[in-house]
Amino acid sequence: MINLDRRQILKWLKTDDSAELEMLWKAADETRHINVGDEIHLRGLIELSNFCCRSCAYCGINQTNANIEFYRMSKEDVVECIRKIHDFGYGTVVFQSGEDFGITAEWMSDIIKYVKNNTNLAVTLSLGERRYDELKMWKESGADRYLLRFETSDLELYRRIHSALPCADPKRDRIAIIQELKKLGYETGSGVMVGIPGQTYETLAQDIWLFAELELDMIGIGPYIPHPDTPLGREYQKMQQLPSSSPSLSPANQVPNTELMTYKTIALTRLLCPKTNIPSTTALATMNKVSGRGLGLMRGANIIMPNVTQTKYRQKYTIYPNKASTHDNAEISDKHIQELIKSIGRKKGTGQGSSRKY
Ligand code: SAH
Fold first, then answer.
1. What is this structure's pTM?
2. Exposed, middle or buried: residue 171 (CB in 10 Å: 0-12, 13-18, 19+)?
3. DSSP alpha helices (H): ranges in 37-161?
4. Among residues 173, 180, 205, 296, which is most buried (max CB within 10 A)?
5. Model confidence over 37-65: pLDDT tens digits?
6. Element (H, E) at 183
7. Are 56 and 163 spatial neighbours (Cβ–Cβ below 8 Å)?
8. Whose CA is nearest to atom 2 of ligand 1?
């Protein structure tokens, strides 16, 4: 049994002792088995649009990136994806996009109602920092869950990498919106990137602690993957070229954006938030295309979000480069995931796979 306080979390994040890490993986896997069982719930991901009104320094669909070909899916194409999710027997549809106000509240509401009237799927939204009246309208239209990662609990780092909108209320930050979502009755998810330039071990430990304090239903954790057409991607490249002693860009306390660090973060999150739904993320699968997703599932995760977006669109949703399954179609993504579930001796989830905390 591993007991965790903040100091212990920090200690685990810093350890590279393989025997100790084996203990951590085992404890996380047992905790997952006891609290959320052996089912892996599948959430079909539809990447609705890559338009975004922000210019977040980490994200490739940052509006200042001149190399993006923009798209917004047609209703017909969205309906085709929803049908596939239903036919594949997944429990949830996840709608994700840049912060695109071309996706109007009414348009999204109609889609949510379509899902609710024609399928038994749960609806998850991941559309960024939308207005309170929009979040309320979508909940009333039948949406069940909302994902909004706080990205990092270090406010200074957050402000540096996440652009504020000039007209926005500075007090309505992502944490405040998470509280709104909870009050509105959404199952609420958040998460972070691991290894953002400037992220320290202390910050990452604080992130994990904050997951528990926020009592989240879902927690998404993925490695930061530098995108060369973004300010942070360029900063990362510079950081790699500098001698490790350089104080400004490469503090000794910098968290590496590695697979291992991501597994540690997932495992510690499982121990601290035993009943939460935790995906093995596409970013992890991108870092290690062969076994990243499987190892995430064996070290605390219990969810996969297979991409069902038509190939012509998914190639343009480049939040980071070389994203796993960018060139596949929904059938191939589904086949790989079914094989993976079997190969690690787990079961495909039945039903909507709602949060057990909820
Ligand atoms: N517009 C929505 C959805 C963004 S994409 C929103 O902002 O919530 C979903 C997640 O992808 C983000 O929350 C972020 O954590 C992650 N992401 C973005 N750029 C990334 C990068 N370069 N590397 C790894 N993850 C990234």
1. 0.96
2. exposed
3. 75-88, 105-118, 132-140, 155-161
4. 296
5. 999 999 999 999 999 999 999 999 987 88
6. helix 174-184
7. yes
8. 128
The residue whose CA is least distant from atom 10 of ligand 1 is: 149
Q: Separation of 243 CA from ligand 1 center, angstroms? A: 29
Q: Which residues line ligand 1 (CB under 6 A)?
A: 58-59, 96, 98-99, 126, 128, 148-149, 151, 193, 222, 224-225, 227, 283, 319-320
| Mean pLDDT within 164-191 | 94
- Beta strands 39-49 and 347-348 are parallel
The ligand 1 atom at the shortest distance from the C-alpha of residue 98 is 1
CA separation, residue 20 to residues 12, 16, 52, 71, 221 (Å): 9, 8, 43, 47, 22
Three-class secondary structure of residue 344 per DSSP:
coil
Query: Which residue has its alpha carbon closest to ligand 1 atom 13?
Result: 149
* 44: Cα within 13 Å, side-chain hemisphere: 29
Count of beta carbons in the 10 Å neighbourhood of residue 112: 21
Mean predicted confidence (pLDDT) in 299-326: 94
User: Strand (E) positions, the chain?
Assistant: 39-49, 92-97, 122-126, 145-147, 187-194, 218-223, 303-304, 347-348
Q: Which whole number is the average pLDDT over 147-155?
A: 97
Model confidence band, residue 246 (pLDDT cutoffs 50, 70, 90): low
